[in-house]
UniProtKB/TrEMBL annotation, chains A, B:
Pfam families: DNA_processg_A, WHD_DprA. It comes from Pengzhenrongella sicca. One of its GO terms (biological process) is DNA-mediated transformation. Residues 352-407 form the DprA winged helix domain. It comes from the Bacteria. This is DNA-processing protein DprA. Residues 129-337 form the Smf/DprA SLOG domain. Belongs to the DprA/Smf family.
Length: 421, 421
């Protein structure tokens, strides 16, 4: 791969994914306003200007940044009054200067082409809003959307997540949590849903494994680079995801290490990419609740799987239920209903019909009053059931037909329902 | 006890509780309109008239029953048009005639004084709207309110249920369900709540036992007479309820047997008497869901305890959560909040504070970027954290103060937080 093989937009977006940390709203606004290529050129100018003016206190930005914030996405309302006064306000200028200050150190040694080559050697590609595989659902993140995704395996991420559900939860899952995650994943995979998760130990890993076991596709969003399986103990699982037609995706370039903030930002990608998010098992404080919060904020359906109240590992799920953030889901059908179209409505539960189903209230009362051993007359049955003799007589016919009552001399007694033919 | 010792209202209400089945709306309306004594006298007349006119198809009622239905509580809206036409409609006349038909067989051998004597020998009393112990909350049942309650033990049922919660659930409870029922009952008893339940095996029994273990009071609503502990295996438990200041209550007279319909009607008493109802464990079809439905219909708060989704014994609880009938409750504090006044708000969960609590975002990012072994300079930390050098310098101070970062030559490295003094 030479530089000429890579279009400048892809190269610039790859560079931005190295320069700005995930979820950097200012970067998103600058890229949206100038386009990734011009935004990068502007950043290089601004960084040089900043170097030459360091300590002078003047503006560090070489072009008028008012144009960048036409959409108002990234500046404080107070800044708008300044805009009306004919220029970008001091607060927004300071914000841009601060952003240049945090991006500039990463311009040194920046080499997106090298990182694209690393990805290409792994068989991966970069997808972004100008390429077919880009999951357009990420647009809901606004300026927090990543500049691009680094993808190994199936590059058609958009198609993969069009019918999908995120199954997330604690790394420190119990056997119950892992069992349920695998069952739900297999069940929704069988219904044609892609399972999205974070590749972590516990619930995430069980969900990916379940999806594969169910013959389905699964997408892993990593917090670090796609060249470094994390955690290392799940390397074989990630390899299996790729072998089975799934994808391993990250918004940070190869070589990037996962960090606490990157994990939290990664969660927003899972929430935005999947149609719905289900928390399978999560303690009171859990990153999975952060994912659920992102999904709720994006108006995506959120589900939570209940568990024993004696298990602290389910306390976060119960918290979501109590706070009304999540709907209670207990099986794959209900998860499919949450994430699906009308045709995915969970089927009504089929349960064995009770003996008394189909009987009227009076018949049920007579049935209750019928003695099992010694037969009783209709007058006695009327007193026992609290019904008139006419009502008792009317009820005995259907009960006899149903095989629940039988005549015995002048009276009646109960008998077990006859086996159906 | 002679007849002279019993006031006629109590005697008449006791008689009505024998004549009409629990939840008989027509009986409630007739008693409300005429008062229990006159209503009973009217019934005797009407039954005699019915005997003499049986088969003639004419009205069986000896007084103009229009007065009975002034409140409109018990007749179909279609009847109102008839009312406006100047008399009770045919449908309502037929309904009254049918009621007399089902009540009349029980007039034979009616002897409320004998049943009151049975109760008195057991140390019990009858409470009704004219006596102090009557739980006024039952008025919310309207014409479905019972004419009286037969009470053993503490007769001040009103005071007992003023601060109360019903804990109900499956007879076929799991060890989990019984454990949680007992824990919740002990916890709310400790907070001064009376535990109301149905005295059945499983969740009910565990709830009563837990309340006693928690030093609290418990009220048992039986579907049969209070002279017949049901189920027999819980006889010792019911005795213990009485010994510990609790009450055993029924709307049917001594000697009455429980029946399916009486169990279902008994559930409405539990739902109406308690301030809130919590279903601890219930299968998809369970009488406990009937109780929850009554409570919801009475606008009482309803809670459900989640359980493993792999346990069919919790499927009914999850159904209540999914359908929005119940709030998810997981401990006694949350149950108390459901059933209590403002002072009973569940406390916020106290959990061990995470190491990074109180740190700003930039400090967290620097903390993530700090190497553990070899120290790193601020320029390297800025690139790794995606921050400006000035931000890194600003963050290192608080991190050093918190004992999370330490200088090492010209650079910095991470260290474990020092033990608090």
């Amino acid at each position: 791969m030479s530089g000429a093989e890579v279009d400048p937009v892809t190269l610039a977006r790859a560079a931005w994914s190295r320069v700005a940390e995930p979820g950097d709203l200012t970067a998103g606004a600058v890229i949206a306003a100038l386009g990734p290529v011009d935004a990068l050129a502007w950043l290089r100018d601004a960084a040089r200007a900043g170097d030459s003016q360091r300590g002078a206190g003047g503006p560090v930005v070489g072009i008028d940044p008012v144009d960048l914030f036409d959409d108002g996405a990234d500046h404080h309302p107070a800044g708008r009054a300044d805009d009306r006064a004919g220029g970008l306000g001091g607060a927004s200028r300071r914000r841009l200067a601060a952003a240049v200050g945090r991006w500039a150190p990463r311009l040194e040694g920046l080499d997106p082409l090298r990182e694209l080559r690393v990805l290409a050697r792994l068989g991966g590609v970069v997808v972004h809003p100008g390429t077919p595989g880009w999951p357009t659902a990420l647009a809901d993140l606004g300026p927090a959307a990543p500049p691009c995704l680094w993808v190994r395996g199936d590059a058609a991420v958009d198609a993969a997540v069009a019918r999908s559900v995120a199954l997330v939860g604690s790394r420190a899952a119990t056997a119950y949590g892992e069992h349920v995650a695998a069952e739900l994943a297999a069940g929704v995979a069988d219904r044609g849903f892609t399972v999205v998760s974070g590749g972590a130990y516990g619930v995430d890993a069980a969900a990916h494994r379940g999806a594969i076991a169910g013959g389905g596709r699964t997408v892993v969003f990593l917090a670090g680079g796609v060249d470094r399986p994390y955690p290392a103990g799940n390397a074989a699982l990630l390899a299996r995801v790729l072998e089975t037609g799934g994808s391993v995706v990250s918004e940070v370039p190869p070589g990037s290490v996962p960090s606490r903030t990157r994990f939290l930002q990664r969660n927003r990608l899972i929430a935005a990419a999947a149609v719905a998010t289900v928390v399978v098992e999560a303690a009171w404080r859990s990153g999975a609740l952060n994912t659920a919060g992102h999904a709720a904020g994006l108006l995506r359906p959120v589900g939570a799987v209940p568990g024993p109240v004696t298990s602290m590992a389910s306390a976060g799920c119960h918290r979501l239920l109590r706070e009304g953030v999540a709907v209670c889901v207990t099986d794959a059908g209900e998860v499919a209903e949450l994430a699906g179209a009308g045709a995915d409505l969970a089927p009504a539960r089929a349960e064995a019909a009770a003996e008394v189903d189909g009987l009227g209230l009076a018949a049920r009362q007579v049935l209750d009053a019928l003695p099992v051993r010694r037969a009783a007359g209709t007058d006695s049955l009327a007193r026992a059931a609290g019904l008139s003799i006419a009502q008792v007589n009317a009820a005995l016919g259907p009960l006899e037909l149903a095989g629940l009552a039988e005549r015995d001399g002048p009276g009646w007694r109960r008998r077990a329902r006859a086996a159906r033919p």
